Amino acid sequence: MGLLDKILAVLVAILVVEMIIYTGIQTELYTNTKLRNLSLLDDLNHINTSNSIFINELNKTFNKTYPKMDEFPKNYYEVADKMYPDVKVRNIRTLYAILKNIKLPTYKEEYYDCSEASAQLEWILEGYGFKAYIAESPNPPPGEASLSNAGHMWVIVELDNGDLVAIESTYLTKNHYHPPGIIMGNNRKYLEYSYLYQMYLDYLNKYSNGNYILPKNLDDFIRHYLNPPIDDNYLNALSSYYYNPSKLCDTPEEYVLGEKHGNVIYYVPISQFDWWNHPENKHIKELFENN
């Protein structure tokens, strides 16, 4: 073999090695990306390993109609429908599983607070196929005395059986994270799916391996392990507040368009709902039309 042939052989060998390394890197990147995209589905599907909670995309109905949006992006709900798979059954277990895997941007008053968080959560849940509403009260939630002049917004979901489930949307923001954010109803309905019960389970999981005196049950936990403690009066006030909103709207645009009382139109500016302008939602904003 001549010198030129040897040089050529070495160059070919180097090229082959580089191609193998490049292919391996690309495969790893693809695998990691694919796993990240599938992690949510895996987490959700584990509640029923024999049958996915999602509708097969091949059987999904695509000729859907979406609410007409004038003030919001034209394809507002269409984007949500394409981003999130529809669930087969809209029950409390499915709702709980999905909420446990949602983490909204960091809460910041007058930037990304209860109105933005509620609008984004309603949008996400509509994408999954739930019937969701944005609820409002002119008063703050029980126990929030420092917000005496502040109103509040949250989300209420209607399940297939007609039950309504209230969700404190700010409990899904990064710095106020108490998933699934579900508020138990009257007579402690959906207690085991509530954020308080999840806090109780998390506490047991965190301290069960040490020399700690653990709470005997949920009541013991909320009365003696939380600061401030919670009693039945607070729980009753909480369910009464969240399940009896002063206003309930199908879309955030209804708040923006407002309602007329006499000669005055009361409305909420769209700047209170434009969650897609948050930097962490940039990838969604790019999908919206006329944003």
TrEMBL record:
The chain crosses the membrane at residues 7-25. It comes from the Archaea. Keywords: Membrane, Transmembrane, Transmembrane helix. This is Transglutaminase domain-containing protein.
